[in-house]
């Protein structure tokens, strides 16, 4: 995240530098020290770079915002986990604090055994894929 923040600041600084360069180009053109053809070529190139940097700045801001939100959500989840370091009994209150939703899929018979997939989504962190342990009930 630090690298992205640094990249964002560098892009913003380059956009400001390009503004100054374009302004100086215009002043050189007005003074007559720069031909119209050269002015058009250079200003087009700098303006294109500036447009690309503006898009990059926008994308980086969105990426940093998502990373910050994810970090905040993770911190909230960790606070809940710390609150319940020892759970002697699973109560509805504890389940509500941890679980956002549960999706229970239709049961299937595989090799003569009944299987059923269950998806568990936690508050703040979404679905956590744990290493699978095959739990099957004989029909």
Report on this model:
- With 139 residues, the chain is of the alpha+beta class.
- The protein contains three helices and six strands.
- Strands 1-4-5 form a three-stranded antiparallel sheet. The chain has a three-stranded antiparallel sheet with strand order 2-3-6, with no helix packed on it.
- A hairpin with a 2-residue loop joins strand 2 and strand 3.
- Helix 1 packs antiparallel against helix 2.
- The longest helix is centred in the middle third of the chain and has 48 residues.
- The model has no long low-confidence stretch (mean pLDDT 87).
Structure summary:
This protein is of the alpha+beta class. It is built from three helices and six strands.
Reconstruct the topology from this structure.
Elements: H1 2-31, H2 36-83, H3 92-98, E1 99-104, E2 108-110, E3 113-115, E4 118-122, E5 126-127, E6 137-138
Antiparallel strand pairs: 1-4, 2-3, 3-6, 4-5
Helix pairs in contact: 1-2
**Which stretches of 5+ consecutive residues score pLDDT under 50?**
none
- What share of the residues lie within helices? 55-70%
Question: What global shape is seen?
Answer: elongated
Radius of gyration: 28 Å
Secondary structure category = alpha+beta
Largest sheet: 3 strands, antiparallel
Give the number of helices. 3
Distance between the termini: 51 Å
Mean pLDDT: 87
Strand order of the largest sheet: 1-4-5
Order of helices and strands: HHHEEEEEE
Strand segment count: 6
- Strand proportion, as a percent range, falls in 15-25%
């Amino acid at each position: 995240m630090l690298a992205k923040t640094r990249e964002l600041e560098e892009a913003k600084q380059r956009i400001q530098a390009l503004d100054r360069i374009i302004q100086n180009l215009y002043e050189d053109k007005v003074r007559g020290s720069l031909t119209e053809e050269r002015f058009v070529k250079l200003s087009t190139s700098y303006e294109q770079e500036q447009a690309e940097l503006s898009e990059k700045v926008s994308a980086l801001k969105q990426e940093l915002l998502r990373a910050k939100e994810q970090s905040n959500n993770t911190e909230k989840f960790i606070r809940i986990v710390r609150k319940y370091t020892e759970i002697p009994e699973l109560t509805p209150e504890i389940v509500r604090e941890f679980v956002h939703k549960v999706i229970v899929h239709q049961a299937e018979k595989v090799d003569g055994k009944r299987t059923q997939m269950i998806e568990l989504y936690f508050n703040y962190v979404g679905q956590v894929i744990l290493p699978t342990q095959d739990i099957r009930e004989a029909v």
